[in-house]
Amino acid sequence: MPKCLLIIDSVPTNRIRLAAALEAAHYDVVAVEAPQHVLRMPGLSPDLVLCGLHQEPPLRALHAIKTAGLSPETPVIFLDADASPLRRLQALKAGAREFMSRKIPDALLLARVRGLLREGEAERECARRRMTANSFGFADAPAAFDAPARVACVISPGVAPNLPDMLAAALPHRLDVLDMRETLRDAARGEDPDAYLVAPGTDDDALDAILPELRMRSHSRHAPVLVLHPDGDHDMALHALNLGASDIASDTSSGDELSLRIDEMLRRKRLRDQLRQTDEQSYRLAATDALTGLYNRRYAEAYLADLMMREHDSEQGHVVMLVDLDHFKEVNDTHGHGAGDLVLRQVAERLRDNLRAGDLVARYGGEEFLVVLPDASAEEGAYTAERLRRAVCGVPVGLENGTDIPVTASIGVGLGVDAAAVRPMLKTGTFDVALADPGVSFSRMLEAADSALYRAKNSGRNRVELANT
Fold first, then answer.
1. 292: in domain
2. Are strands 318-325 and 409-415 parallel, antiparallel or unpaired?
3. N or C, where is the chain less crowded by C-beta within 10 Å?
4. With contact defined as beta carbons under 8 Å apart, do 105 and 234 qualify?
């Protein structure tokens, strides 16, 4: 669905020209003469506002926009014939997201519009997730303390010698002045910058050398970058945005303006970091069992299917075990479900503590666990299964009332399907076949482990049985 852009300008020719440029870029455009006209359009919810100024103070114009019924989070770009440093500073202080000259090329304006629309998506997504969490009864997390950030100032030789002193006087953050080599060094030194200010002067090659590298490297790809370009050099400004700069500023900008822009970049970075953390938490919650903290069945089966695909291709072997607690129903019936939960947690910890770092253990059912040993032989599987059995039954689980509950487990061990037998099917060149065939092997392997577990149960429990091969 195209983004909706609102143009506010009292001059008809300005509205017509700007609307034509934005519609050519496939945006939905609404153009009005003054902010109060928005009140006649109930339901209008633009993603971004472009407002032409005509001598009026930016603060007054922004107030009129916000009182016209638009969301206070909607980003605003001011366009003005007077794009002096003082007017820019006034607009940014008032709360505008950008202030640009009417004389800039359409390509540069469109690049800035695209960047602000991307940033707006992150803010709206954070708001949606907060609302979703509230609908489930989750309280908002306490606001994090915004500690001073670390800003790296990267200046080409001979460019802006007074810039570090000007920034140090205006920024409430730690400022490190780095050369190109220091900037591109890996994060092994420990502390990574939260944001970058790059001042290449007129050297396009320096910009080409540093921006793609910052976006590629793991220690800097999430850090916003502000590029300082020569005043009036629209080509460099556009080039910087196309290379991935988060923001641009003229080299005539004051320290206060640069500080405002850096603070805004850091605010948006915190939102993006919050989104990533939310995603990571969601993945973790979706993949783990709430009671034991182990992986859950869905994750384990996806992991095992992927493992089989990779090991078929490399001809590696693996071992799968089903571990089932003996007489677990009697624990719940005799001591209560709270005691049963404690037993499950204790067993999960014992299994986890007796496996390699690369092995997987998951809660597969009520009192059943799945263990996967990548890169393991049948002998290693049998030895590990016996070690796990002894770990489970070695010490009773103690309750708070002093009662000890003896615990034992039966284990069925299955082996990975021989790679050579399935390789012809995997090499047909058909993607769907390559995905479907391992699923058959996957089911058969689990069935083999389950049959071995059944024999262990019928043979007296508290024992290990290997699948028939």
1. no
2. antiparallel
3. N
4. yes
- Tell me, what's the pLDDT at 221? 82
How much is the average pLDDT of 327-344?
94
Q: Are 299 and 287 in contact (CB under 8 A)?
A: yes
Shared domain check, 246 and 116: no
442: pLDDT confidence band, cut at 50, 70 and 90?
low
Cα Rg of the chain, angstroms: 31
Reduced to 3 states (helix: H, G, I; strand: E, B; else coil), residue 422 is helix
| Residues 239 and 309 occupy one common structural domain | no
Strands (E) located in 83-178? 98-101, 150-155, 174-178
- Give the CATH number, domain containing residue 325: 3.30.70.270
The Cα–Cα gap between 240 and 238 comes to: 5
How far apart, in whole angstroms, are the C-alpha atoms of residue 304 and residue 281? 22
Given 23, 367, 379, 386, the catalytic residue: 367
What is this structure's pTM?
A: 0.66
Question: Tokens for 180?
Answer: 């190109």
| 195, 222 Cβ separation under 8 angstroms | no
Beta strands in 350-460 (DSSP E): 360-363, 368-374, 397-398, 404-405, 409-415
Residue 116 and residue 168 share a domain? no
Same domain, 301 and 421: yes
Identify the H or E element spanning 116. helix 106-135
Q: At what angle do helices 204-216 and 234-242 cross, to 10 degrees?
A: 20
Q: How far is CA 411 from CA 123, 340, 406, 408, in A?
A: 50, 19, 17, 10
User: Stretch 402-411: mean pLDDT, rounded?
Assistant: 94
The tokens for 366 are 């009520």
Q: What's the residue count for the chain?
A: 469
Q: Yes or no: say if 6 and 75 are a contact pair by the CB < 8 Å rule.
A: no
Tell me how crowded residue 192 is: count the other CB atoms within 10 A of its CB: 15
Q: Are residue 187 and residue 126 in the same domain, yes or no?
A: no
Q: Kindly report the CATH number assigned to the domain that includes residue 229.
A: 3.40.50.2300
- For 91-118, write each residue's pLDDT tens digit: 999 999 999 999 999 999 999 999 999 8
Please tell me whether residue 397 adopts helix, strand or coil conformation. Answer: strand
- Exposed/middle/buried for residue 332 (C-beta within 10 Å: 0-12, 13-18, 19+): middle
Which amino acid, 85?
A: P
- 367 catalytic? Reply is yes
Range of the domain at 59: 4-135
For residue 62, give the amino acid letter: L
Pair (22, 66) in one structural domain? yes
Q: Note the pLDDT of residue 15.
A: 96
Share of the chain above pLDDT 90, in %: 58
Residue 456 domain flag = yes
Name the average pLDDT for the chain: 85
> How many other CB atoms are there within 10 angstroms of residue 184's CB atom?
15
